[in-house]
Amino acid sequence: xxxxxxxxxxxxxxxxxxxxxxxxxxxxxxxxxxxxxxxxxxxxxxxxxxxxxxxxxxxxxxxxxxxxxxxxxxxxxxxxxxxxxxxxxxxxxxxxxxxxxxxxxxxxxxxxxxxxxxxxxxxxxxxxxxxxxxxxxxxxxxxxxxxxxxxxxxxxxxxxxxxxxxxxxxxxxxxxxxxxxxxx
Length: 184
Prior knowledge:
The chain is α+β, with helices and mostly antiparallel strands and 184 residues long. It is built from two helices and seven strands.
């Protein structure tokens, strides 16, 4: 069985700001579950888009009751994220998936950030996440139920983190501007 979660949000910032925030958002103080996130590749695709591949180490948040299989008894999972930025279309796409325990759990997310139809200086965010648990019987069903809640809460937490990081950046820029203005 596959569990699917969707999320939508409108950021009141341009796509460029939201995409830049996404690419710099982990690790951060708002989400202690992402231990490290490293960029492993940057290039330009044949169609002119900027491509970034990142690998993150994420804490295993499965309750110990659900870690009965030896491969699930780990402290961290590895996640891979691929991003494509099309400057001309102002479109940012993100695909991520787990690389650890793929023989048991397949978790994927696909996100698209585009200019909002009613205000091109805002960003429409749409995400679809899926979780498939294979070969774990009843424990697998419980993991899917847990995963559905985890993906849903995680999507909303990711939105809040992005909003908070953009607000922090705006606050720093504003205070810098004011300090320059006052002492000019």
